[in-house]
Amino acid sequence: TDDKILVGPTLTFSGNPMTAPWQEVVRIDTEGAVLLQGNRIAKVDKAVILLDRYPEAEAISYRADHLICPGFVDAHAHYPQTAIIASWGKRLIDWLNDYTFPEEMRLQNPDYARIIADRYLDLTLAHGTTTVTSYCTIHPHSVDALFEAAARRNQRIVAGKTCMDRNAPEGLRDTAQSAYDDSKALIDRWHGKGRATYAITPRFSPTSTPEQLSALGALWAENPDCLMQTHLSEQTDEIAWVRSLYPEARDYLDTYEAHGLIGDRALYGHAIHLEPREIDRIAECGAALVHCPTSNTFIGSGLFDMAGLRARGIPIGLATDTGGGSSFSMLRTMAAAYEIGQLRDTPLHAAELMWLATAGSARTLHLEDRIGSLAEGLEADLVVLDLASTPAIAQRAGEAKDHWEMVFATIMMGDDRAVRDVWINGERAGERSEAKDAI
Ligand code: GUN
Ligand code: FE
């Protein structure tokens, strides 16, 4: 038997803490354990029960100040921007033109695309992220590079070819027809292969003609089990630009809606400056919003209304948005979400933050039956956090009155040193030190 029992405090969910009090649906069992069979989570129970029932299984014990969690799920990122993370001083449109587009142009070299895809997955894995949802570049080989790199690591992955046919430099534009054809070929090649999900990816309304948005809307209608990801209402000058480019549209969301780019498998990144009609429409059709807190502060976009939007029952995921985001780490991203909550006078609890970074993001990807929780039958993607990973955190944790205070200290101050182990599809992805060497 290659059954394994991971022994240590476990984090489990029995419901959605965005709609129910977290105390009722999120739980840390300090005497817990997880049974892995093959690539699956077979059972989550008390350690004494699992050790007694499965005496043949290999037991792997983690300290009482560790926490066995679902692997982190990043619901919106741009792997091609790995090299320009932390570029100084610009707001969205200038940041795209000055830093992002020149870098994305470099991925026209397939070897460079492969190097960046590997580097990005190594970095995110070292931070405990087991699934990423990424934009690629307009080059189809940039999509192949990421799906191939993920397949080599047995990682679940969501990605798509970024489509742009205007307001982008020469060399970084496709057409309505080629965006359709190339995306269709990539869907046929990758969607549902192994652990891959394809997301149809118009970058955002300003860089697509209405013809391109229509072509991608048609492609989505022909492939309704694919996801569709794009950006929505991130900065006020962006919204004004959208208004001038689409004078007939009622609002920003309408530019997507009018072209068939709305539905319960739509993921809209940022969604900060929404009109009441947009919120009503999103709630009505079950589309998901993705909160990108480090990006929203770094590029100066604004403060996402988590409290207001969750109250409307809208599925919300959490994401780094690298390289607009300033960190590859979902711990740092949770910390930024906490800080934005504080600025809006509605702080999130550690239990809510952990849910958003795992099950919440998985739900926005329609993958909640596969990843995002420690639950029977799900794929065994886990991260084991050391809640005493540095002297300062250890002292704070040592004086905490419960496990949640320890978790919160690690969310606020932890980095990749807090990532003790990562398990992917039932296999250990390497000791922390090995993962670090790979960077
Ligand atoms: N809007 C359109 N493209 C991008 C991008 O690459 N990053 C961010 N943060 N916003 C965008
Ligand atoms: Fe983005």
TrEMBL record:
The keyword Metal-binding applies. The keyword Cell membrane does not apply. SUPFAM superfamilies: Composite domain of metallo-dependent hydrolases, Metallo-dependent hydrolases. Keywords: Hydrolase, Metal-binding, Zinc. One of its GO terms (cellular component) is cytosol. Its cofactor is Zn(2+). Its EC number is 3.5.4.3. Residues 68-427 form the Amidohydrolase-related domain. One of its GO terms (biological process) is guanine catabolic process. One of its GO terms (molecular function) is guanine deaminase activity. Pathway: Purine metabolism; guanine degradation; xanthine from guanine: step 1/1. It is an enzyme of class 3 (hydrolase). It catalyses: guanine + H2O + H(+) = xanthine + NH4(+). Binds 1 zinc ion per subunit. InterPro entries: Amidohydro-rel, Guanine_deaminase, Metal-dep_hydrolase_composite, Metal_Hydrolase, Metallo-dep_hydrolases. Catalyzes the hydrolytic deamination of guanine, producing xanthine and ammonia. Belongs to the metallo-dependent hydrolases superfamily. ATZ/TRZ family. PANTHER family: GUANINE DEAMINASE. This is Guanine deaminase.
